[in-house]
Amino acid sequence: MKKVILLLLVSLLFAQPKGNLFIVGGGKITSQLYKEFIKLAGGEKSKIIIIPIASEEPLESGKSREKAFKENGAENVEIVIFDKETADNDTNLAKFDDVKGVFFGGGDQNKITKALLGTKLLSKIKNIYNNG
């Protein structure tokens, strides 16, 4: 599993994308960091998706992040919770149309990998990143 995660990261880093990776870990995310993420995602009106599936309590975690983004100026934020079986359903895929920022919440990152590997949704997220 670690090799898969490493390969995913390497492919993202060397694809010469137009987007940004905004990596934060190991502590509280400050207002300044939320505001910088919003700025990099294109500003307050840009669509931001929160993926909290790494958390033990994804819905609660997602709602907390959504509140923080809105308190820091984001106007168009949505939480998307899925697993491997539901990642590619039409409803989830459509939610990623016109997205400018994808925020992965903290927790067990293996849950994200298991849910996304080999899916159309992962391809859509990569396209968001690669296209800026």
Summarize the structure.
The chain is mostly helical and about 130 residues long.
The H-level CATH homologous superfamily, spelled out, is Class I glutamine amidotransferase (GATase) domain
Shape: globular
CATH topology: Rossmann fold
Q: Please count the beta strands (DSSP E, at least 2 residues each).
A: 3
Gyration radius, in Å: 14 Å
Topology:
Layout: H1 2-13, H2 31-40, E1 47-51, H3 58-71, E2 76-79, H4 90-95, E3 99-104, H5 109-116, H6 120-130
Parallel strand pairs: 1-2, 1-3
Kindly describe this structure.
The chain has a single domain, classed as 3-Layer(aba) Sandwich (Rossmann fold). Helices cover 46% and strands 11% of the residues. The chain has six helices and three strands, in the order ααβαβαβαα. It is globular.
Key features?
single chain, 132 residues, mainly alpha, Rossmann fold, 3-stranded parallel sheet, 6 helices, 46% helix, 11% strand
